[in-house]
Amino acid sequence: MRLFGRSNKKQMTDPNLGLLTQDRRGWSGHLPWPDSSQRISLRIESTGEPPNDSVGTAVWACLGNYSTLSGRLRSAPFSLWQPYVAQRLWEEEWPTSPEMLWAQLKLDGIEVQRSGEIVLLYAFKGEVWPDAIFSVQVSGADVHPLHLDD
To answer: Percent of the chain having pLDDT more than 90?
Structure first.
């Protein structure tokens, strides 16, 4: 909220994560995606305290390990998608395999939960289903599908 032209949101520059803005749920910002000019959203849940160095280290370790995890990451969103495979909500390029679905998704964001767990958020590219978000938890080399939100 702005009062007399001033914002009541705190901002900080984290040495690993860049500019972060505080709101009622924690801290948020954007990170450059290493393979392109795309930026991905970053959300850090907290009770108000700024993130410590271990948060930035964990986020960048996860992103640094991304290509190694890609095989497991391809399967996780599809396990969330399987209940929809028979429904054919649109005509063109309906994903019926992990590879087909993966080709239609982009990494849209990263959430760091209060527990320190990292959740990767995937969205469809373009306007296929713009509000669908696939949440996949990454813990070291383990990948766990969490949920598909609409």
So the answer is: 50
**pTM, rounded to two decimals:** 0.87
53-102 pLDDT, tens digit each? 899 999 999 988 888 998 899 999 999 999 888 776 666 778 889 999 99
CB 82 within 8 A of CB 39: no
DSSP structure string for 25-62: TEEEEEEE-TTSS-EEEEEEE-SSSPP-HHHHHHHHHH
Measured at the CA of 44, the angle between CA 38 and CA 37, to 5 degrees, comes to 5
Closest-CA residue to 14 (of 1, 34, 31): 31
Q: Could you tell me the end-to-end alpha-carbon distance of the chain, in angstroms, rounded to an integer?
A: 28
